[in-house]
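User: Structure tokens for this complex, please. No commentary.
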Amino acid sequence: MSHIKVELKKEQVAKLKEICKSFNNEAGELINVLHKSQETFGYLPAEVQEIIAKELNISVAKVYGVVTFYSFFTMLPKGQHPISICTGTACYVRGAEKVLDEFKRILEVKVGETTPDGKFSLSCLRCVGACGLAPVVSVGEKIYGRVSPDGVKDILKEYE
Amino acid sequence: METIKLTIDNRPVEVPVGTTVYKAAKTLGIDIPVLCYMDLHDLGIENKPAGCRICIVEIEGRRNLAPSCSTACANGMVVKTHTTRVINARRTVMELILSDHPKDCLTCPKSGRCELQDMAVKLGIRNIPGQEYAEMSTYKKDFSPSIIRDVDKCIMCRRCETMCNDFQTVGALSAVNRGFMSVVAPAFEQDLEKSPCTYCGQCVAVCPTGALTEVDHTPKVIRALADPTKTVIVQTAPAVRAALGEEFGLEPGTSVTGKMVAALRQLGFDYIFDTDFAADLTIMEEGTELLTRLGKHLSGDKSVKLPILTSCCPGWVGFFEHNYSDMLDVPSTAKSPQQMFGAIAKTYFAEKMGKKREELVVVSVMPCLAKKFECQRDEFKVDGNPDVDYSISTRELAHLIKEFNVRFNELPDEDFDRPLGESTGASIIFGATGGVIEAATRTAYELHTGKKLERLDFTELRGMEGIRSATIDFNGLPINIGIAHGLGNARKLLDEVRLGKTNYHAIEIMACPGGCIGGGGQPLHHGDTSILKARTKAIYAEDTGKTIRKSHENPYIIKLYEEFLGKPMSEKAHHLLHTHYFDKSKKDIFI
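Assistant:
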């Protein structure tokens, strides 16, 4: 987890409160509130979770519990170029793991993390519906097919 | 009442609609094993996440085995609790739970009192298949001043979460992460110390394994006892004597005051004193504070706030510092009996003995884990030397007695030492919910009216209901009293006070169910609330058996004021016996 201290701006706090209010500040709407908040902020830092907990009148521990339970939610900001490696069955059997390892090695981050310069973030996803191109990697909106571990550094070069 | 007829293990049974299979079996004397399930019926708490699957049974016509703790009975149901299929599945479930559980039972603080260990014994687990390939989760240990979290031993029963969130409404703990990595932890997996935890210890009291245990101070006590340069003083809280016997196989509700004193003497303490003495002192200070505030309030002084809230319970103090920081001027400023005792022992008594405070070691025996944190608070130290050096729980004392080879049950009854060992019936009932306010009423009534109380038993203030209220007639002046035990109940009551919806003059709050008798440091009751009731009964019986039952009539308290303090709320009393509170609501939880 991250201990990066985030100073939320007044407008951001107001926006969060507005999101909570749009769900009537109901504790049962926590997941919807988190969805909307992540859509707005890109991620869910501790400070955001604290405000949500207060607005919905539930414990911060509970909010954190839900955030960590669903892999969709993230407490880390996405990089400028979010990299996703498909680890669905087809991609996996065609060597996605070796491709992933190469990304991890070069970028020196784990899955779910962002490089210290904020440029790249690394995540895995399951099947993008392009199994014919397996293994598939996406960087932002761009899709790369039949990626081999050797090709990883060429992909990264495009974003330097 | 509508009922349902079914058969369990070939025996017919009739139960009310909504009864679970587990409970229906119980009425037949069939104990289906449970692990995550917990029923604190009298407190209205039931933990049944159906997570562990130990309680599975076979129900005819159903494809899968069903968790009996959360399956409702239906008409004509045929249940089997010990078929080969059930036994094999139950054993497999247990083996899977154990596959990711540390195997350090020999050195585990819960060893011998562990429900997981007991279950492994009951189910005859002799090996764990695939153990050599199993990956073990590793999670850092969390040491707070009172509680140790070793969540590698967590089996995700979620009992602690139920106590912390549903009953206490503290919200320090929640299940976080998922799958193999899931544990119960505070927000952002911070240490307990950085969470809103009040150290009430109710999580420890219900934890079936060694995942949540108390910080053990017995090694420090042993060292102090062996140090010839130290005079070691012990004080024992009222609720300890009503439960300690359980650790030695005695019936719940057996008072062991005399044996406890004899045992403490055998352990080598130099003076065996009683926190009850300090409880009498608390009544003098808190009762006087109540009457002063009441007097000012009645004369129209708007700056004086009522109700006054009791402040003996450190779990409760922590709770209002975190959650009611806008009301810090409402609780009494009186220190808790533990801290009053320490302050008096290291001044008044030290002077009497001709000793310096550094030469004294004050040990407290408490039914409580929050007391460990309380005695470490900076405001209760003089030049770094704490008024109370070490606080040990009832369970830790039992362990010490065993380790010191004392045959507890055969000990003769002995008496506390003087002067700090003399106490009244009023102080003993501090151990049960409603007791502090009853003790305060006995004294405040007589001080206020100048009349002798005809009836000492205020039964209207007693009981197990979560929130209670009563009006006591102070010779024509009706005094409205509120009582809550359990922090969730306290929250309900306090929210009303905050909104100005109540007209209470005084409120007593205890963090634990039943008051101190149900404290987090008491012998484990494993969800059996009849044990709490038995302890309460023992407390009130001790009160009735005392000749002096009003705090202001304790001769040694009278002497203490004459020789040392002057009068209640005097400058000296203020300095030694009163405290102030801190706003912890904005405590930064980030590293």
